[in-house]
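Title: Prediction job returns without error message
Component: structure pipeline
Severity: low
Priority: P3
Assignee: unassigned

Description:
Job completed but the reporter wants confirmation the result is attached to the right record. Sequence as submitted:
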Amino acid sequence: MTENLNPLSQFEITDLLALDTPLIGNIHLSITNIGFYLITGLIFILILNLLSTNYNRLVSNNWSISQETLFATIHSIVVNQINPRKGQTYFPFMYGLFIFILINNLIGLVQWCHFIISSVDVFKFSSLSINKIVRLYSNCNNNNSINFLNPFYITGFVDASSSVRSWKEGCFTLFKEKNGGKYRTEIKKLPPYFVTGFIDGEGSFVVKIIERSKMRTSYEIQLCLKIAIHVKDHVLLESIREYFGGIGSIHRNKDSFQYEVSSLQDIINTIIPHFDKYPLITQKFADYHLWKEVANLMQKKEHLTPEGLSKILNIKASINKGLSDKLKESFSNINPVLRPEVKNREIKDPNWMSGFVEAEGCFNIAVLNYGNSTKVQLRLIISQHVRDEALIKSFVNYFGVGLITKSRNTTVFYVSSLKDNNNIIIPFFVKYPLYGVKLLDFINWKQAAELIKNKEHLTDSGLKKLKLIKEELVARKIN
């Protein structure tokens, strides 16, 4: 007689050992299969830790090395997703949760063993990424507000007693549901001119000339498009990388993330066609034009000849900071090419302005005390090197509002009129949204503008709200 085994039986909870006690209230005591396997999982974890204990030996055993590798991997994930300081706070919990889920999942893969994770509601968290779990704990706080660590991975629960509200401003749609208080986001694709505007502010076109004795010319030429931004905005960098089709790489450098595209094929096939179609308009256009010439020389293999190397050296001498002192010593006959003249460059698409503000703009809230009175001022500030003075001055005509000021080598465009901010600036960035962490600054700034417009800042409670909004905005910049 054959026994029919049901594959779904490994998901059922059954008693392995039961004890009924009719004399003391019909209490049913039992050890179920899920209890047995949970205990088994804990024993496995204990055994692995005992095996990996090194007992002060200088040379680690294989178990110890594997444990250290797993520890370092999880630590890197958690710290990178939060920050080096706060990441340490959540690491013990994340490490324990990860190991526990891992062991019990492995047990569940054994034929006819009970699949524990399917039976415990708490492990619904396992469907979330580490990124989202971290934000679940880091975004919750005790003052019924959200600390937006990253706008693209907001997942948190707060005490939400207010009615349903939704903001559709920027790269994501942020929802707050009544009674649940759950925040979720939906990422949108970046507009092409937003990418150009952002790179006009934060990008750089790099030509590397590296000494290599094995090369025919004794030098290797490398091209690179580089974008470096603060670690808190790394998801925007991921979005830019996705916009370019996933090419290039992103790596962390202390408190910043860098996106680099260095493959000549990717530069020729993706990067150059983008900037030819959606051109830069700052002085960075000149760097791009010369950088593109180097790419064309490399595509023709001219960089492998002494003549081609000489051409590239002359071009590099006019890009960014020019040649290094070492290259100047090695090549005394350099004749820098003329930089292309960049003037009368027009803003062809409003999304370029959004991208440029994401890179170089600032939404400022100033609360000024004058004796017994308080003055509140909201300012949009966009600053750039004086070499782009003509472009910055054109912003006054572009928006139809604003003023220009200079500070050392910087030209600054700013709008401080409440009327202009409410009628021009806020509607502009609602229609042509920001896509990074600065969107959250704009939301705070807009909330402050609404308070002032309704004259709530003239009351003690309204002024307190305004100061809390400012503190949130400032804290985001510090963190």
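Comment from assignee: result matches the submitted record. The first helix runs from residue 33 to 51.
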